[in-house]
Amino acid sequence: MKRSRAILLSIAGIVALLILTLPYWGMGPAVFLDSERSVISRSWSPDGKRVAQVERVVVGGEPSIVILVRRSWEPDWYLTGCVAASHYQDQQARIEWASNTRLIIFQGGPQSYWDKSAPFHNNPCSDVTAIFQKTNS
Predict the structure, then answer these.
(1) How many domains does the chain have?
(2) What's this model's pTM, rounded to 2 decimal places?
(3) Is pLDDT at 119 greater than 70 in this prediction?
(4) Can you tell me the distance from the alpha carbon of 111 to that of 97, in angstroms, rounded to the nearest whole number?
């Protein structure tokens, strides 16, 4: 009897803790699941071991452009790989590999609006250098 009561109290405590902390952790997964993602273009590295892709990610109605790099054998999921660069607005971008570790990002706006973080991503690319090149269009 004491053991079943302790189990019920433990379960009730966990449920109460989850409900009380819902405002802190609940919106992250909810917003992620409600986001829209579309791959605009992709490019394979010269050695064929990596794929870089330009993605348009809309989170909460706000578009972002994210340049992701992943190994060629990894699935095309948003959270695989790393972030080479991102732009927290809608921006025209095109990518091209200069070498196996250097990625050229052709874009039309100022470079200062680009960052190495992206929505829901914690890992920027440590072994890929992003080089920005301004385009005329």
Answers:
(1) 2
(2) 0.72
(3) yes
(4) 18
